[in-house]
């Protein structure tokens, strides 16, 4: 009878060790990836790694809950031999983490209470908790509860929000205006509608509409030649500087020409 | 006459023949935040850049044929940055299998004497505008969301008036000629911006 139990224990410990080794390996490789390949790691592969870890943890939990697994809680470990000398076998087994099995470290390693550092942190926390007054604590608890319940409410009712959002979308479905698209594309493409940037002063009197027409022929028909050599005759309106009536300006001059001269005409 | 500044303009030929693949659209001012939010989610995870540029479009009119157009851009936000000179070829619409407009594209950085140089060469400014907005990237894809304004007084970029109540949205990729597969990527990206923006290949000839 006892022998069978022992065998069962051994088998379960063995399988537990192998599962933990698997988990350790995947953790190691994940940490390695995070540290060395973080710049080219894609989010899906991070998620894959998390999924793998969570799966392995689940198998371990299942194994521990299995009926055939004897309760480890009932097993007692007694240190039979303590030695202050370096134990190579032990170092190898623990991957160089533990070198000696001495009275100094054994109590820490075989303890059933939390690790000393954890215990220390816990002490600090309980000291802090004791320091703040009953009222303050009560208030904090209330705030936390309020936050949690409102968060839960939000998480439980995502549908309401989503519906509200889609109805808002429906109400306000005009995100863009095709007319604006056309106008803007024409403006960057060939300066349509940008003709107003010409100085109004240079508009010949009596022809104000010619430069002010939006998208009108002006800009697209403006040809700019050196010193008015291309000044059109008849159909063209030679522009003149207001200060020099009738005189050909020596500087460069803008001519508004008939539509047929320009490649951009309609 | 002074010797012109040494500005190299590999307008034709050159070793690299880059094409710009382009999709255009617009978004109303009130939907801008939604679009920026979505772009921040879709694009590379870097801080989106903002810009304020002044673009001057220069024409060189020959005896016959189409005028030669060059676009000079300077940053209003960084006045010391070099000017940017750009040549854009005639856009090709292509057939249905290609999802983007394609045009020849040459980009050159230039010194601050660029306007003088262009004037000396016979180029004349045709029009100008101010573009302010944001740039996003996703790999080779570039998304520019910008507000276009016209200058009320020529050359004065402080006194401007918005062209419309929308922002221009342009999705572009620079690629060697013949790589029409990039237009596939562009289309799938454009799909993700619907219904905020409908990015289309818009033939500018149709708009004239």
TrEMBL record, chain A:
Q: Which UniProt keywords apply?
A: Activator, Nucleus, Transcription, Transcription regulation
Q: Which residue stretches belong to region Disordered? A: 225-266
One Gene Ontology CC term in the entry: core mediator complex
Cellular compartments annotated: Nucleus
- Tell me, which GO biological process terms does this entry list? regulation of transcription by RNA polymerase II
Please classify the protein's predominant subcellular localization into one broad category.
Answer: nucleus
The molecular function GO annotations come to:
RNA polymerase II cis-regulatory region sequence-specific DNA binding; transcription coregulator activity
Superkingdom as given in the UniProt entry: Eukaryota
Q: Does the keyword Transmembrane helix apply?
A: no
What Pfam families would the database entry show? Answer: Med8
What is its quaternary makeup?
Component of the Mediator complex.
List the PANTHER family hit by this protein, alphabetically: MEDIATOR OF RNA POLYMERASE II TRANSCRIPTION SUBUNIT 8
Task: Write out the similarity annotation.
Answer: Belongs to the Mediator complex subunit 8 family.
Task: Say what the protein does.
Answer: Component of the Mediator complex, a coactivator involved in the regulated transcription of nearly all RNA polymerase II-dependent genes. Mediator functions as a bridge to convey information from gene-specific regulatory proteins to the basal RNA polymerase II transcription machinery. Mediator is recruited to promoters by direct interactions with regulatory proteins and serves as a scaffold for the assembly of a functional preinitiation complex with RNA polymerase II and the general transcription factors.
Q: Under what name is this protein listed?
A: Mediator of RNA polymerase II transcription subunit 8
Report the source organism.
Ictalurus punctatus (Channel catfish)
Q: Which gene encodes it?
A: MED8
TrEMBL record, chain B:
Keyword Cytoplasm, does the record have it?
A: no
Q: Which GO terms describe its cellular component?
A: core mediator complex; mediator complex
Sorted UniProt keywords: Activator, Nucleus, Transcription, Transcription regulation
Question: Signal peptide location in the record?
Answer: none
Record's InterPro entries? Answer: Mediator_Med18 (IPR019095)
Q: Which GO terms describe its biological process?
A: regulation of transcription by RNA polymerase II; termination of RNA polymerase II transcription
Q: Does the keyword Nucleus apply?
A: yes
Question: Mainly localized where?
Answer: nucleus
A single Gene Ontology MF term assigned here is: transcription coregulator activity
Q: What is known about its subunit structure?
A: Component of the Mediator complex.
Record PANTHER family:
MEDIATOR OF RNA POLYMERASE II TRANSCRIPTION SUBUNIT 18, MEDIATOR OF RNA POLYMERASE II TRANSCRIPTION, SUBUNIT 18
Q: Can you say what this protein is called?
A: Mediator of RNA polymerase II transcription subunit 18
């Amino acid at each position: 009878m006892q022998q069978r139990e022992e065998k069962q224990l051994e088998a379960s410990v063995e399988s537990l060790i192998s599962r933990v080794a698997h988990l350790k390996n995947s953790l190691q490789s994940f940490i390695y990836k995070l540290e060395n390949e973080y710049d080219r790691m894609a989010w899906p592969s991070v998620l894959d790694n998390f999924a793998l870890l969570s799966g392995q943890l689940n198998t371990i939990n299942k194994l521990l809950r299995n009926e055939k697994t004897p309760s480890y809680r009932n097993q007692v470990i007694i240190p039979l031999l303590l030695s202050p000398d370096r134990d190579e076998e032990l170092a190898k087994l623990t991957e160089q983490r533990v070198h000696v099995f001495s009275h100094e470290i054994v109590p820490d390693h075989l303890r059933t209470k939390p690790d000393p550092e954890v215990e220390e942190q816990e002490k600090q926390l309980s000291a802090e908790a004791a320091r703040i007054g009953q009222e303050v604590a009560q208030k904090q608890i209330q705030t936390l509860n309020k936050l949690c319940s409102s968060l839960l409410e939000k998480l439980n009712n995502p549908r309401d929000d989503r519906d509200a959002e889609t109805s808002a979308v429906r109400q306000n479905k005009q995100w863009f205006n095709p007319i604006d698209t056309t106008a803007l594309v024409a403006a960057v493409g060939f300066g349509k509608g940008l003709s107003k940037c010409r100085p109004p002063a240079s508009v010949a009197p009596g022809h104000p509409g010619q430069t002010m027409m939006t998208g009108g022929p002006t800009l697209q028909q403006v040809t700019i030649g050196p010193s008015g050599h291309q000044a059109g005759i008849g159909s063209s309106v030679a522009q003149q500087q207001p200060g020099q009536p009738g005189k050909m300006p020596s500087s460069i001059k803008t001519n508004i020409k008939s539509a047929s001269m320009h490649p951009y005409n309609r | 006459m002074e010797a012109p500044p040494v500005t190299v303009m590999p307008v034709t030929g050159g070793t690299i023949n880059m094409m710009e693949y382009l999709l255009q659209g617009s978004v109303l001012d009130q939907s801008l935040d939604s679009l920026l939010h979505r772009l921040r989610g879709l694009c590379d995870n870097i801080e989106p850049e903002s810009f304020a540029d002044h673009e001057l479009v220069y024409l060189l009119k020959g005896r016959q044929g189409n005028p030669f157009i060059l676009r000079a851009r300077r940053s209003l936000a960084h006045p010391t940055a070099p000017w940017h000179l750009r040549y854009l070829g005639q856009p090709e619409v292509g057939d249905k299998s290609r999802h983007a407009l394609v045009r020849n594209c040459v980009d050159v950085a230039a010194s601050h004497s660029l306007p003088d140089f262009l004037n000396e060469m016979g180029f004349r400014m045709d029009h100008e505008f101010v573009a302010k907005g944001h740039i996003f990237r996703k790999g080779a894809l570039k998304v520019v969301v910008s507000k276009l304004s016209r200058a009320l007084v020529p050359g004065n970029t402080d006194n401007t008036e918005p062209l419309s109540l929308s922002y221009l949205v342009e999705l572009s990729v620079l690629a060697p000629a013949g790589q029409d597969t990039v237009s596939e990527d562009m289309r799938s990206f454009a799909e993700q911006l619907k219904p905020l923006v409908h990015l289309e290949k818009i033939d500018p000839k149709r708009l004239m």
